[in-house]
Specification:
The chain has 325 residues and is an alpha/beta fold. It has 3 domains: 86 residues, Winged helix-like DNA-binding domain superfamily/Winged helix DNA-binding domain (Arc Repressor Mutant, subunit A), CATH 1.10.10.10; 97 residues, Periplasmic binding protein-like II (D-Maltodextrin-Binding Protein, domain 2, 3-Layer(aba) Sandwich), CATH 3.40.190.10; 94 residues, Periplasmic binding protein-like II (D-Maltodextrin-Binding Protein, domain 2), CATH 3.40.190.10. 37% of the residues lie in helices and 19% in strands. The strands form 4 sheets. Strands 4-3-5-13-6 form a 5-stranded mixed β-sheet, with helices on both faces. The chain has a 4-stranded mixed β-sheet with strand order 8-12-7-11. A hairpin with a 4-residue loop joins strand 1 and strand 2. Helix 1 packs across helix 4. The termini are far apart. This is Transcriptional regulator, LysR family. One of its GO terms (molecular function) is DNA-binding transcription factor activity. InterPro entries: LysR_HTH_N, LysR_subst-bd, WH-like_DNA-bd_sf, WH_DNA-bd_sf, XapR_PBP2. One of its GO terms (cellular component) is protein-DNA complex.
């Protein structure tokens, strides 16, 4: 039995596909090939970028010209140059790709929302602050919710939000300082502390000032993956010194293992102390440096359901049982 599709949207008239004589002849792949070729000096260079040989690319470009009945390239032995018509098509390709990307993004986002699925961009260290517990509680309260976690750097999360690839991002405070037109809100507030090996001469202290660390070797998170690194550097400069950074790492677990090996000290979120580190001491910092966990979102795509999710995560993460001992 054939399935019948009902169009309930009467505001848009159906397309007359018979009038689209080129629809079965011009593909998105063909336009993509043309677009890459239009930004290359030679077809050989374009073919390399597309990971194909030159001959099929050249054939596709001639086929496109035949279908359209126009000349897109001026060719000679050394190079290819766009004609004025080719320039126009390149501009139109940008619009076509943008519309297609937006349409696919809207459809997939709608499907996720109707299925109760949420794609969350995360940095791994937020689980040390009780994020996993909060998600468990939320799942228990709303069993139909489905979480898909995507581990992305803060910068990758910002791009993913614009592209509708994630619904909400979760980052540290420092990564929310320059995110316009995105917006953010605090989920969990915590300070930075000093992390050092228990054999370090300062390990017996209950509190330290940044200025006391001027001669220490620092291990920090990569500047590319975390704005918190630059935030710490800026606070050190305010205290009159530039920290001696001997190593930058990508993963928080790596950072802690390097500290434990006595290769340096670091300034880390207080929640790192919730994990069991056999030879690491955490010492409070006299200066206040924020390491808050924040939700980042696109205000144009926020809805009551997402707002409720953020509020619930905030409540669960700040539950009394999750506060540091």
């Amino acid at each position: 039995m054939d399935t019948k599709f009902v169009n309930n949207d009467h505001s848009v008239a159906p397309l007359d596909l018979n009038s689209l004589y080129w629809a079965e002849r011009i593909s998105m792949k063909m336009l993509r090939y043309f677009y890459v070729a239009s930004h290359s000096q030679t077809l050989t260079q374009a073919a390399e970028r597309l990971h194909i040989s030159k001959s099929p690319l050249s054939a596709k470009m001639r086929e496109l010209e035949t279908i359209l009945g126009v000349k897109l390239f001026n060719r000679d032995k050394r190079s290819v140059q766009l004609t004025s018509t080719g320039l126009m098509l390149r501009h139109e390709c940008q619009s076509i790709f943008s519309v297609m990307e937006g349409a696919v993004s809207k459809v997939t986002q709608h499907a996720r929302e109707t299925q109760g699925q949420l794609r969350l961009g995360i940095v791994s260290s937020i689980f040390w602050a009780g994020f996993g517990y909060a998600c468990q509680q939320l799942k228990a309260q709303y069993p139909s919710i489905q979480f898909e976690f995507l581990e992305l750097s803060p910068q990758q999360q910002k791009v993913a939000l614009f592209n509708n690839e994630i619904d909400i991002g979760f980052v540290r405070y420092a990564d929310t300082l320059d995110i316009t037109p995105l917006e953010s809100c605090n989920l969990y507030c915590e300070p930075m502390v000093i992390a050092l090996c228990d054999r370090h001469e300062l390990s017996g202290r209950s509190q330290l000032c940044l200025s006391e660390l001027a001669n220490e070797k620092f291990v920090i998170m990569s500047h590319k993956n975390s704005a918190s690194a630059q935030l710490v550097v800026n606070h050190c400069i305010k205290e009159g010194f530039i920290p001696q950074i001997t190593q930058e790492v990508v993963e928080p677990m790596t950072l802690m293992n390097v500290i434990e090996s006595q290769a340096g000290i670091s300034v880390v979120p207080q929640s790192f102390s919730r994990q069991s580190w056999r030879h690491i001491r955490f010492i409070s910092l006299r200066q206040e440096i924020h390491a808050n966990i924040c939700a980042v979102y696109n205000p144009q795509k926020i809805n009551p359901e997402k707002q409720a999710l953020i509020q619930s995560l905030h409540q669960f993460m700040n539950a009394e049982s999750l506060k540091p001992i």
